[in-house]
């Protein structure tokens, strides 16, 4: 309902604030601006009277504050503060203002004039403006759009100067600028720009030019526009391009365009969909258009003084649009919802605030239309509806009563014989007669409550935190108060002296009002509540809720006062979001819910079963919100221009609107018992019902529930013999869904049948159903998309249907698509033979051409027949006609060219009749009819041809010819070959022995398999044994799985064991007939022949991994030994030890991989003592060969760690560990001495070490002496060095001094010895004397 208010005056511009509900209107005559309230536009809140010598040319409200930017024709720009009523102006432009634009935060204002000057203003919170920068462009700047600022981050806060904007001029150029004075050309269009929109979420811009070219650009960081796509919009339907008006519907490319006509064209540019919105009259011309995103509504003003409204449903209900094309679906998203008449022609239309008001500017003033919800309510068939601002209508059936309450109505409520009206300032209570003959005002109470409900003789009025209970005479009976911490009251519901309240903090409170004072029953914290209802007995309270971390209502909850328990139902599996709920007035168990998808759900509520789903359906067009439920009707508010309440029968009661009360109760009880699966009680409820329509409806209910058994009983009660008989003929294995679909088809439940077949993916049955119900378009669609296997059959049936209805041309087209034109009697589809022949000539259907050729041949028109045979590709018929006419040469030529086997067969039969046997055999061969060719060759004893044909034929043909040759006694070798080729190797070998054809026996014996007769195999073996071909004999024995005999023969004849022979002897190790003993014998034989790898393989298959490893050790293949240990060691730790012991015999000192493997294997085997010994060996190697006591010390420590890991160490191990610790201590002392920088300290340590009796077990004495000698030598103490050298020689006489000391040191020490020099001189003298 739209309420009109008028503001008189001559206004030039109007603009509405999107938050505060205020309107700015610029006066035409004096350049002043008035600020008005949208809800009561006659009140002026503030006025600016400046610049009376100019005209206001631009107005724009601040995004979030009561600041108004104003531009005048003289170039002045100012910001009007509505709160302070002060106008603050900035520097003036040189010409009239052409464009004003705020940024998103309201800190920047852009003003542009007709000469192209652009000024960037900084605006503070009070509206004070100061110029930041300005620049001049060529031409008038017509519009400006701010670009979305980059996202704010903690590391990079959004700076004040980061606002960007785009401007464009009439020349089709778009500039990119900022508030730092930077401006550059961003893009260019070929024509003048009509409209443009910035798509913030994608950082894209869409542009529409006057030649109706839609272009979308992506924006680079520097503001450059990159063209993504261009779409040319059709100009059809646009009268005058100069009067084009564009309104953007959404960012996805949906726009509305009008050009002075009576229709609006709405286009989905991206998806290439469009529709025309008709105003209903061709006499008017639309001159203005605007779109409100909050209400999804287009408003258009026309020259006839009417303002038309259309609503857009972006998410149309899928159920409504099922089976319709996308174009139809897009068109049906738009619905005309209003036509407002005004007394003047509108100049412009705009939406106020969030869409709650519509502002229309005319030459005489401003019209403000405010949309108000129609107040209405229902109770047990009585309905109350607001007709006008102060008029309500009460009706039930044909009885109507209208009452004018003399004040604007805010809320109505009705109960049995009483209704209440709230006007916002007063609460009026009326009683009325049952027949609605009259109504009487009982009381009028001063009350500003807008939350009112009536229960019997009590009226409830809710205020902020209290509910006052009045009698119908206006006496205050009780007051119910809620606490401050619970919040304000949002919803109330009352029934049977029970009051339910939901507060703003989502607290449910329930009170008992049956006593003198209200008795508090319970208080429950709930989820976010959006609707509240209480059943007629006052014991069940239902409300809708929102699940945690969700944004939409998706739960229905019922609180039982008697049980103090909650029942809940999650609506998300149904894909629905509840918006309102109502209890049934007749039955307290019925709960009805309306969802956001225009669906109505019906539930039963009981203590035993909770909330039970019963039914759902989609509201039809014209039905508005659900108001109430009183079986058999659901009451809805109409969506038409004329306000009304529409009773719609529930799905279970269609056709039973006038049924008696006991029948309605019986049906409700039946539905409930079926839902709880209590069939006996369900039929008891219908014991007295005989109405056929009732039973038919009940059958439909059962089919929806897939209760085929109960539906069958219902159909028997109405004597529906066809349905029951069809059900009995169905197979027992058919599912209940398919049986329900069959019954639904008999009851004309088309949507149910479709849903069942689609859910079961039985598109073949859906196709048949559409055919039987005459829905051929749907049948063809299903066959084309989902049932391709029956596509041609569907076209044939459709063609027959068209023939029956007399549409021969359509039938012909259908038969052509079904490739069945020939089989459907084409002669009956045409009026004359000439017409039929003309069709055959033009068609591409080869089967029809062949049919016509046969017809011409039957009439003797051979030339025409051959022509049509050729066009149909029937080579056989042409060859047949040539043969019958004696033109065998042409027949042969055609047959060879086409390669058609049937043609060759026909020629072969012709030659056979002519007794030309060789030619007949040749063409039988070309036709692949070898049996016929063999027959002729046998009859005429053509042996060579017979063998060739047999080899080309099947195995049966080969066997037949081989028998023939064997019987004839000639060409036995050929017979043997044919038997072999036919897969009868045993027969071929038997024939070899009989005919003594031993030269072919080798080839045949190789083809023998395990299934060959054992006697035949042994016969071949004896033959090979007699001829000293032992290898072949062994091969046959393995083929016969005589492995032991084969192995014995290998041992006896010393046959070399190859890998292939070993595999055949021992099998794969997985065969059941190859036991471990046999594998072991094979492995031992391989050992004897020194085939260690084969022996290892067989020992492994026999399960003896130890012997397998020992075989590898004999082979000396280190790589395989390591690999085998890694594979088999985890199961047998001993293998690790064996492998590691072997690897120690190798040169592990120079091979790091071998050394690593030794350590790994000992570690995995947990052979700590062996690993300790290995580390000890490593230590000794480092000392003996490299004198590296540091590494030796590390190895000894690792050895100690290994010995320490032995849990139950013997005394021998403990002694070894003590000795090891002593050696570690000696070596650590020696290493410390070597690293000491103090010679005296080092020499003292060495002297101490030499005194130790066990020092040679850890540190060699020679290394200690060498260290001491080198130290004294390096410090010049040669005498002491010589003494130590002598001592070293005396202590270790057998040692080689060069091993410990450098040769240069030894030479120097000897040369410095005086006694050594004297002795040398004496020797020289003696030599000289000599």
Can you give me a brief rundown of this structure?
The chain is α+β, with helices and mostly antiparallel strands and 1330 residues long. Helices cover 38% and strands 27% of the residues.
The radius of gyration over CA amounts to 54 Å
The low-confidence runs, each spanning 5 or more residues with pLDDT under 50, are: 40-46, 151-161, 315-325, 1068-1073
Mean pLDDT: 80
Q: Indicate the proportion of strand residues.
A: 25-35%
Structural class, by secondary structure, is alpha+beta
Shape: extended
Give the strand line-up of the largest sheet.
1-32-31-30
Q: In angstroms, what separates the terminal alpha carbons?
A: 151 Å
Structural account:
This protein is of the alpha+beta class. The protein contains 44 helices and 59 strands. A hairpin with a 2-residue loop joins β37 (411-415) and β38 (418-422). α35 packs antiparallel against α36. It is extended, with a radius of gyration of 54 Å. The chain starts with a strand and ends with a helix.
